[in-house]
UniProtKB/TrEMBL annotation:
Keywords: Isomerase, tRNA processing. Formation of pseudouridine at positions 38, 39 and 40 in the anticodon stem and loop of transfer RNAs. Residues 8-101, 145-252 form the Pseudouridine synthase I TruA alpha/beta domain. This is tRNA pseudouridine synthase A. Homodimer. Substrate binds at Y110. GO terms for molecular function: RNA binding; tRNA pseudouridine(38-40) synthase activity. Its EC number is 5.4.99.12. SUPFAM superfamilies: Pseudouridine synthase (SSF55120). The active site is at D52 (nucleophile).
Amino acid sequence: MRNICMTVSYDGTSYNGFQSQPGLNTVQDRLERAIALLAGEEVKITASGRTDAGVHARGQVFNFLTSSQIPLNRWCMAINARLPDDIRVWDARQVADDFHSRRWAKRKTYRYSIRVGKYMDPLRRHMEFYHPTALRIDAMREALTYVEGEHDFTSFCSIRTVAPSRIRTIYEARLETEEADKHLQSSVFHIYLTGNGFLYNMVRIIVGTLMQIGEGKREASHMKAILEARNRGLAGPTAMAHGLMLWEVFYEDSPIIT
């Protein structure tokens, strides 16, 4: 048996999330089906984490055990030929027998994209949240500094969160802007959050709160008070799923298993 680790990108628009669910269309189901068709055996893949319905991934990592002797350099092209066009595997490696893509992950980066201005981009509408009016970018940047470090993120997770501990560490929180699109008279900025783990809806609730700060409904300093209160009711709404992307998963010193 070999333990194969792969990296996959997908547009989550048409899927009910990553994790397999009875009667629903998920990315995991599509991947397992493609691998079964290729290898001639049923496999169960383990991913670095789950993404919700409508959420995308640039660098989701998963692994599975297989008795197939297909050479590693053939796996990606062969699997992609059996996948829909909105899912693409782009890296395949053999890893240690005890490697587990979720348990071995050291940190992850999520990106949330927001377009601000006169017109939305119809070509990127599934990957960006559109906000027609200006946002206070500097205030949002200041607010992001309060979530860096180790904190109890109870205020920024769904009440349906079942994790026994709400303590997580955010290593980096930043906001980057793209050059404005003169035709659409709008511009995009991306919020990046890198941490050792994320609670259910944590990134989307942080972003929803940031947008209220950007709109002038809250001050940047309120982010600190909300965090310390450990009360979900004090934070902003959960931002829409389609602006969110699992950007990268890191193992040891490299984002890809070697």
